[in-house]
Amino acid sequence: RQRWRAEGRALRKLPVHVGLVVTEEEPSYADMASLVVWCMAAGISYVSVYDHNGIFKRNNSRLMDEILKQQQELIGLDCSKYTVEFANQDKTGQVLNCQSTLKVLSPEDGKADIVKAAQNFCQLVAQQQRTHTDLDVNVLDNLLSSTNGFPDPDLVLKFGPVDSTLGFLPWHIRLTEIISLPSHLNISYEDFFSALHHYAACEQRWGK
């Protein structure tokens, strides 16, 4: 744990929010759990897990059990009390140990969430609580439920052969650095840290 934390601190910059996007057809709970735990150990504050079929979200308890197991095995945390936040569900916002917050997302948290936010804004205009001139980036951000309380991703690690993020938070990744890796299956810590090192070394021009 100390090694991973030290390596995270040694990077020139560390992402605040990392999205883990799987485009492969058969996601691995064990390998995804390893990635989440490595993010936690490195000191990353927010982690989003996404697959385009929504498998992780439908089976979130299985994913959480694997994360808990690996927390205990890899970084030795007392994980008897763990919580996790699931987007767009009536659950209390919850936080994993290691001061990292996790959201498990699916395609319904992307374009569908934007449509819902637009409908909510139109209702506010119809009720004269807003005017159409009030709509801006910050207002729309506040209306989106899938990332409530989450900053936009600084880094997305995309796993698999598909050259697309397949609907992962389309509104929020305008300025996100996206790094593609061949697969999340049997991924090593070295591959994960190499991606963080690549992110730390990149120069972001913010569209300039």
From TrEMBL:
Annotated Gene3D superfamilies? Decaprenyl diphosphate synthase-like (3.40.1180.10)
| Pfam families the record matches | Prenyltransf (PF01255)
Keyword set includes Endoplasmic reticulum: yes
Reaction catalysed by this enzyme:
n isopentenyl diphosphate + (2E,6E)-farnesyl diphosphate = a di-trans,poly-cis-polyprenyl diphosphate + n diphosphate
Gene encoding this chain?
Answer: Nus1
Protein's job:
With DHDDS, forms the dehydrodolichyl diphosphate synthase (DDS) complex, an essential component of the dolichol monophosphate (Dol-P) biosynthetic machinery. Both subunits contribute to enzymatic activity, i.e. condensation of multiple copies of isopentenyl pyrophosphate (IPP) to farnesyl pyrophosphate (FPP) to produce dehydrodolichyl diphosphate (Dedol-PP), a precursor of dolichol phosphate which is utilized as a sugar carrier in protein glycosylation in the endoplasmic reticulum (ER). Synthesizes long-chain polyprenols, mostly of C95 and C100 chain length.
Would you indicate the residue range of the signal peptide?
none
Q: Where in the cell is it found?
A: Endoplasmic reticulum membrane
Key words of the record = Angiogenesis, Developmental protein, Differentiation, Endoplasmic reticulum, Glycoprotein, Lipid metabolism, Magnesium, Membrane, Receptor, Transferase, Transmembrane, Transmembrane helix
InterPro entries this protein is in? Nus1/NgBR, UPP_synth-like, UPP_synth-like_sf
Protein known as: Dehydrodolichyl diphosphate synthase complex subunit NUS1
Tell me what topology the record assigns in the membrane. Multi-pass membrane protein
- EC identifiers of the protein: 2.5.1.87
